[in-house]
């Protein structure tokens, strides 16, 4: 039987040869992978911020790169057998082994002991010279001690008089005769004063002027009284051996006649002095 012209064929048309459904599938998968990866990265950042690891580890890529760097340029050992520390600060310290850290700690402890020994020896020398400076930096104390030792009088040989030629005055740092702020003679002061006594034998009948000066520390009246007591102590020592063969004049100037400005410990030490003069008139 013939089909009517209005009859429609229900069979679907075959797909066109130019369509590519697999490409859409792959694009969908890539889009889904990107969205999922972004969400996972965001979740990881949130977890790292709010729940950080107590002992964070170096990323694997960084550790691998540093391992390659070490293979390419090995550490150069020092004279003590320890590698030269890098400029990485705490990271460089973290790379040290337990044995290396122990050696460094021993060296630091040894240096601390040496510094303490230096401080103790310096304090003993300062106490011996009557000028302790416990609260002053170590370098300043060493400089002050060196200057004070330069000012210290070396006792000449018996054949070399203190008073010779036209020189009729001897100036001594008072710290070698008296403790700082004290009018009692040191035990070793007799060595210097005995040398002066032996030289004065050539000037019998002369007048001996003893003048003592202090620094500006403290009250001026107290300094003047201290210097006068020190001058009397020197006079008593000299007169006990010279008897009545000389006339003595003792003067305490205090801080009224400084040699240099009292603006440092070294200058104040220079201003603390004893002047012994001979007048033949």
Description:
This protein has 281 residues and is α+β, with helices and mostly antiparallel strands. It has eight helices and four strands; from the N terminus they run αααααβαβαβαβ. Strands 1-4-2-3 form a four-stranded mixed sheet. Helix 4 (98-129) packs parallel to helix 5 and helix 6 crosses helix 7. Residues 152-159 have low confidence and may be disordered.
In short:
With 281 residues, the chain is of the alpha+beta class. The protein is built from eight helices and four strands. Helix 4 runs parallel beside helix 5, helix 5 runs parallel beside helix 8 and helix 6 packs across helix 7.
Compile the SSE list and pairings.
Layout: H1 21-50, H2 60-72, H3 90-94, H4 98-129, H5 138-151, E1 169-173, H6 189-199, E2 207-213, H7 220-242, E3 247-254, H8 265-271, E4 273-279
Parallel strand pairs: 2-3
Antiparallel strand pairs: 1-4, 2-4
Helix pairs in contact: 4-5, 5-8, 6-7
Unreliable parts: 152-159
* H and E string: HHHHHEHEHEHE
Helical residues, percent: 40-55%
Separate helix tally: 8
Total strands? 4
Report the radius of gyration as a whole number of Å: 46 Å
**Shape descriptor:** rod-shaped
Strand sequence of the main sheet, in spatial order? 1-4-2-3
What are the defining features of this structure?
281 residues; alpha+beta; four-stranded mixed sheet; 8 helices; 48% helix
